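Handoff note, outgoing to incoming analyst
You'll be picking up this chain. Sequence as last confirmed:
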Amino acid sequence: MTERVIIGDVGEVRLRIDRNIGEVFYDKTRPVGSFLFDFEANPAREWNQIVMQIYEKGFKIRLSTKAVPKSLKPCIDFLRGKYENGEPSAMFAAIRLWENYIKCYNLNHGADIFNERSAMLCKPFHALGDCKLWELQAVKALQSALRTEESQVELWYPMSKRPYECVVGYSSFLPMIFYYLNKINEWGFIVQSCKVCDTRFLARSRHFELCGDKCRKVNEVEAKRQFEERNKDCKIEKTYENHYQYWYNRLRRLKKTNTTDDVMTEFTGAFDDFRKGAVKHKKAVKSGKMKMSEFNSWLFEQQNIVDDMVKRGGEKWVDKP
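Most recent structure output, in case you need it:
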């Protein structure tokens, strides 16, 4: 499932949706839930500081469309940065904030009107604190900040040229946020973190652990690598076990013969050396410092050693390799 976010004049947005020709600031289709996951967070209240600077300085100067007032340059730089970062909630707020300033400049009590509208617009950015937009604590914080005039949302229902429902916001994010959260609850979705890229996404159940096809392919490659690694380790251990058993069987049979103490001591010491060497070589193969073929050659060299000692200790019972 996906969501589509469009920012622009309402008439242009309609044209973009119905006929794909409107001139808009932003139009992007993303995985469903991205609006919530990427929503602008600003617990330091920088947005409020910008609003206050425009309120205190922007209405005490002569507004000019030809030149940027020097006192407002830090504010404009901040808004431009938010607009250019591509996150739609910050982008919309930057556009709306400056539009509010232009529209309110020549109004009676324009500074107060601007301050009220801007506070309502930027409220969700700092109301969340360190919480995430979909967490219960954040929802309660936003609900306590919601005013009656912000509790309505405009819906454009599906039509012949518009096959999906649209949620429209003008001056506040809160109606859209609550509408979205209610829809998620209605759909029965839960928030998951992708086990590959750690990106948050909406899932139908906790059994879904991957956010999309890209991470699914990465996970398949990693699973295959781990499978091959386990098989590689299994092959190494199986080969070693076969040669270990070869040594052990000959040691057990030597003990049943009249083998001299010197041969038995030599064989026991060689067996210990074999086991220590095998541990070292197995680690080298697993780490890629030694080839499997080289490990096999070493094992057969050790087998020649044990055969030689067995012949000297009791040739009559030596088994064929």
